[in-house]
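cache lookup: miss for this entity combination. No prior model stored, computing from scratch. Input as submitted by user K.M.:
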Amino acid sequence: MSDKPRKFKGGVHPDDSKALSKDKPIQDAPLLDSYKVIMHQNIGAPPELLVKKGDTVKKGALLAKAGGFVSVPLHAPTSGTVKMIDKCPGPTGMAVPCIEITADGEDEWGSPFEPVADWQNTDPAELKQRVWDAGVVGMGGAGFPAHVKLSPPEGKEIDTLILNGAECEPYLTADHRLMLEQAEDVVLGAAILARILGLETAVIGVENNKPDAIEKLNEIASKYNVKVQGLPVNYPQGAEKQLIYAITGREVPIGGLPMDVKCVVQNVASAVAVAEAVVKGRPSIERITTVTGKPVVNPGNWRFRIGTPVEKALELVGGVNEQPAKLLLGGPMMGIAQSSLGVTVMKNTSGILLIATDEVSLYTSEPCIRCGRCVEVCPMSILPATISQAVENKRFDWAEELNVMACIECGSCSYVCPSHRPLNQHFKRGKIEIQAQLRKKK
Amino acid sequence: MLSEFLVITVGAILVNNFVLSKFLGICPFLGVSKKLDTALGMSGAVVFVMTLASLVASLVNKYLLVPAGLEFLQTLVFIVVIASLVQLVEIILQKVSAKLYESLGIFLPLITTNCAVLGCVVLNAKAAPEAIQSTWYGATIYGFCSALGFALALILFSSLREKLDLANVPKAFEGTAISLVTAGILAMAFLGFSGLV
Amino acid sequence: MNIALIAILSAGVIGIILGVVIGIVAKVFAVEVDERVEGVEDLLPSANCGGCGYAGCADFAKAVVGGDANPGQCPVCSPEDITNISEYLGISAEEKEKMVALIRCAGDCANTVRSLYNGVRDCRSAVLVAGGAKGCDHGCLGFGSCADACPFGAIEIRDGLAVVHPELCVGCENCVSACPKDLIVMVPAAVDVHVYCNSPEKGAAKRQVCKTACIGCRKCVKASGEEDHMLVDGFLVKTNYENPPQPELVEASACPTSALRLASKHAAGEYEGVSK
């Protein structure tokens, strides 16, 4: 492993607008009257409901158990009663099942497990089970169950654990503040994850635009034999495959997983969740979220419980000073546009971003002029222009041949396209159609 | 001798390409060039029939028509010969190799009246007596190479048309119009080979 | 005269020889082909829509002759066509009721709340952005994925709403799977009264985003009296296609949102501007 990180091919440098919130310390959101916890917060199978209407639950109590191996349990964000189990707006715009909990104001802990006293001498399998029981998912955005990544199949050897603190998305500063204020927990989480994987060490990758975080981590890192690696500032540096390349020089094959190149990548926020689950015995029920954007009166970083409605979250930060044009969950590059303020904070909601009307430009999509800029910036080295045309003409077989499945939907191509073509949307569509066809064949 | 064959080969494939410079066989060139797969099938069938037709027609011409002084019957006889040949090939293929018939079969009837095949045969018959094309083996090689030229043009064009499917074509140019424009440009590109031989 | 005679004779001889050769070869290399396949193919519509589940009309013809398929499976053929094919093959065809597509939404631009959407003009792509830029999660997005899928031009996009023209629809079901909102169902062509709404939300919530939603007021259910012509499913009423109502029901029930419509009048655009 060289000290100098490699630069991956392509990438863009959008205005990061992180100054809005990067110096705002993390604040704890006050207890709300009610929370609407979306049932399915992870990639994979939805969890199985355990409570019913009228049940009283303690904070951290199980609401639902894992519905399979690639699934995680769900815990109550506070103590109170289950008001109803209904549908509420989901992050994709469709109504999804959720559990509404009315808080009793006591906020009394009822965690289903005890803290692990001496994790350094605990069986790694037990620690892994704890990560699963605590419902830890990839908190950077994807929501992939953490324990699955920690369970390489027979014959797959893992030699590198990477913690993702790149936070390359513009606007978002949640991970930045987390690394600064909870550096101890981040490093502790890294050490625990390394123990689970049977590794001596771990690497925390941080983009060089966060020198204070790198410094802070470095102070503590040596204590647990963890290494901190500064990374060049280049979007999408925080994408799993790009991060692995930058740190180890290994390329994940198309359709492959990090474990194919002996790597495991976890988000820094997930590492903190792991540390809290093991050392404090607390399930994953809260997360740091950046509430930001030009219309937000007082942008900042907040510790929200899962199930906090976005509407309430915006009230907490002091509301908005103008009618926003767009609401995104996540950053401006990969975040998902929302149609309702009723959507709630999930385990993978890294940011709530409002875009002002004067920041939004309405373009009509023009034909491709074959300038090749999208090809230049594509970090996965595929051909966005051709693939988008194939999808546009419903030639999904062709799109598949051109490796649309390798697309990580980073949006760099859409960002640079001078014809304002909705390239990313085409890829999403193409991937969905191809997956549907594959399912049909099976 | 060898150089003469080389001249025929290069000449028939590139310089005097049947489709793009002699403008023969335009019908299948436009008709079956929508997909690369069908273009490949058609090319295979044309290569097969054209080589065989050149051989048979050259024999019929040399040993039947010329001695009897019936050169003016060439067109008529050649058409009959080609048509029956295609029929025979189709019937035999269907029985002997069902697999080959599946891939080439549907294209065979299309070639019966393909002017590229007739043109090739007529050109052979019209060749000067001292030219290599007037011998049966010369004629066969010329037929084979011309068919390769046809195949080249067809495959190039079908690949282009597959790409054209993805393009935003103005409404007035959609369909055959843009295909013909493309074919014209392709023909102009092949003009660059003139003078090579 | 002489040369002409020679020409005629030799051309004739060549023709006869080739003819005989082909005849012999055809006999020697004869392959059994069922002529009826071609016969059936001629009787089929040759639209190759795939509505029968086979890859085109030729494939279907092969299956019909082989006994694997019934002529009635062709959704495009008229009853006479099917009778003809059955007679040709000497088999009995199963009777089939003509079905047409029904798009269960009446929310055109004038009657619904829509947000700004600037992406790909295709329904299946549009649902990827916040579930489609329409206030109602269950409404027609109007980008015409179904119209693109229809090989018969039976679906028209009118003011942001897909409208089926029942007289053009042949019931091939190609549009059903094209709709990302699952709005399209096949209904008997003989029934004219339909509820043009598919939202299971509460009436008030539907009213907020759409003026032509079925709010579940049950006026039509009451108007149909003792007969269960209309079925109630939560906050949504549906036509009972087992026991369909007469067209008069639409007038009699005076649907307050005009979600209850006649398919024929809906296609002709006679409901524009009638919602209150």
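stored under new cache key. The mean pLDDT of chain C is 85.
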